[in-house]
Amino acid sequence: MKLTRLLTNKLTSFWLLSLAAVAFIFLLVALVSFTQLTYKFQQQKVTELESMLIHHYEHENNKALSTWLPSILTAYNTVSLTLRAEGQILYEYGPEKLGAGMITYERQLLKADNLILVITLPQPFKMYSLSWYEFSILVIGLLSISVFVFFGHRWLSIQLQGIEDLAVRSKLILENEYDKALAERGDGRPRMINRALTHLLLELDDAEKHRARFDQFIRSNTFLDPETGIGNRLFLKNRLDALSNDKGMMAPGVLFLLEMEDMDLLQQELGDDSIDEMLHQTISDINQILDSQANSIFSRRSFNQFAIVVPQISLKDVEKLAAKLLKVCLSQNVPETENSEDFFHIGAAYFKVGDSKEQLLDESERALRAAQFQGTSGWFMYDKGAVDEELAKGSVRWRSFLEYALVNRRLVVFSQPVVDSDMETHHLEISSRIRDNKNNLVRATLYIPMAIKCGLTPQFERQVIETVLFDLLCDPKGRTTKFSINLSLDTLMSRAFIRWLKTTLLEYRHLTPWLIFEINEDIVVHHKEQLKSRLDMIKKMGASLCVDRVGQQVVSTQYIKECHFDLIKLDRSIVTQIHLRQENQLFVRSLIGGLYRTDVQVFAEGIESFEEWQTLKILGVSAGQGNLFSEPVEEI
Q1: Model's pTM, two decimal places?
Q2: Which of 159, 201, 555, 570 is spaced 20 to 30 Å from 329 by Cα?
Q3: 54 φ, ψ to 5°?
Q4: Quick one: the chain helix, strand, coil %, rounded to 5?
């Protein structure tokens, strides 16, 4: 930050002006005093000459004036002299015509004889000139004053540097740059004030961290099971609502119900410690398996029943996943009882697009009961025929189709507006679909999981960015609004993509401010250290950063400030029927309160009804996105 040094400049200017004024007054007084002294000295000489002439006239009349008077006049530097008595000139000295710059004195010496003296002398100060010795003394004095002024200015600047450091920190605080103000400790003086600022900034930083922990505590007590730390029944309901709309489920997937038979009886017989240890170990192992499944949901429905939802998964992968879950459960150290071989049961219900949420829960309950009727620990799949035919394509066929779409640029871009409280478009969020050979559009929820599986996500997202830069932003009409583009984990972790993105943003830096890059909250939270440098690069290039699906998981929101996000978007699970859910409203209030005094804007996505939008505006949400305003529209 460029230092203004306002205080130092003002004080040093005042000091120099005061010094110059003192010097000027001193020189003026010296000049006036010198002039007055020379005039006084000249007048004393004239008075002495008058005394000598009166004495000579009274004793010797006008005789022999020429014998002694010329030498005295020469010593006095007299230009001319005239001595008259009774109108007659007694003595005259000097030329008839006088030059300029002379002083003439006319004095009446004796009234009785009317003796008058007229004497002309040069200006007194013209008779004095500086010698080399005097001139050298004057030069040395001026140089000494200059050196004194230089070192005085330097000393004053050093003394005021501490106040300038305090001014810099104060300016950063007023601009809400608390992290920079804390790092800019410097050598502020008075030191007590500097230490006080540092202490308050540390307290503020700690308070913000406490606020983030408090927000997480509120969310944990609302959406998490206190014993296991995974989602509770309300969390499961919100996430299922987010995966569905009034037409049913929006993406294919599977719902597992895991139940531990007679766990309450075992707890009474063996105690809480042994059961808790086995339960936490089981949950930990299941979480490790689910880490490889994007957007999976793990929650506790009741004391001994757990639910696992995995969206965008094929039937073949469902069978493999069910086998892994059962293997993990059977590997647990279950206390030896009569029914220890019949302890774990898993019911699976596969759903496709359009299936109702209530039907899904009913089918998973039936599958769980069927697994329990088998008489031993195992799993059962309900209605294996309910398979989305498009998801049943083999990986090789999908790779060929996706590569063909990339080469022939079959990607179709859609945009959905994000509107503010005045119904003005803040930006357009970009989504994509693929047009197949039959001119049908393959939705993103279908092709993106396969693109991730085939490692082609960076290529598709690169084409989306190119379309926005070269087709939408180059259009003069498109420059009136910003465009947001979603980036996945595979894309952000690709070095080749990051190099291309950096080069492209540099080349089109005049268009970069019109771009917003969105990243999933789950990605940011779990890969913050690896992604921070990449996100900082995007930010420095001039683009904005947005984190979406906020609230999907129960995590601390401290990452929003650490990664310097400009926008956040509430997840659909928080927004759905928020006017009827006090716990979701509490979460939004807590989130917005934690972002107070920051420039982060809070948006919401998945708004379907007017009541939801009104409630969000009352809570402080700045803008919204959803089918209430507009469905995605094809751009090209």
Answers
A1: 0.58
A2: 555
A3: -65, -45
A4: 55, 20, 25
Measured CA to CA in angstroms, residue 287 lies from 249, 308, 319, 628, 636 at distances of: 24, 10, 18, 36, 41
Planar angle of CA 626, 627, 628, nearest 5 degrees:
90
Spatial strand order in the sheet of 297-300: 297-300, 305-311, 253-260, 344-351, 378-382
The residues, any chain, with a CB within 8 Å of residue 195's CB and separated by 6 or more, are none
Summarised one tens digit per residue, pLDDT across range 76-108 is 888 888 888 777 787 888 776 666 668 888 887
Amino acid in position 80: S
Distance CA 195, CA 636 (A): 59
Beta bridge partners of 115: 85, 110
Cis peptide preceding 513, ω within 30 of 0: no
Taking the C-alpha atoms of residue 180 and residue 169, their distance in angstroms, rounded to an integer, is 8
How does 411-435 read in b/e, with b if 16+ C-beta sit within 10 Å?
bbbbbbbbbeeeeebbbbbbbbbbe
- How much is the average pLDDT of 481-492? 91
Residue by residue, what is the 3-state secondary structure of 11-26? HHHHHHHHHHHHHHHH
H or E segment and range at residue 122: strand 115-122
Q: Which helix (H) or strand (E) segment is 349 a member of?
A: strand 344-351
The DSSP code for 250 is: S
Q: Report the 10 Å Cβ neighbour count for 511.
A: 21
Q: Left if phi > 0, otherwise alpha if psi is -120 to 50, otherwise beta: which for 164?
A: alpha
Burial (CB < 10 A; 0-12, 13-18, 19+), residue 200, is middle
Span 368-402, pLDDT tens digits = 887 877 778 888 887 545 444 444 445 677 788 88
In this structure, how many other beta carbons lie within 10 angstroms of the beta carbon of residue 164?
21
Q: 3-state DSSP call for residue 230? A: coil
DSSP labels, 424-458:
-EEEEEEEEEEE-TTSPEEPHHHHHHHHHHHT-HH
Residue type, 404: Y
pLDDT in tens, 163-213: 777 777 778 777 777 777 777 766 766 777 777 777 777 777 776 666 666
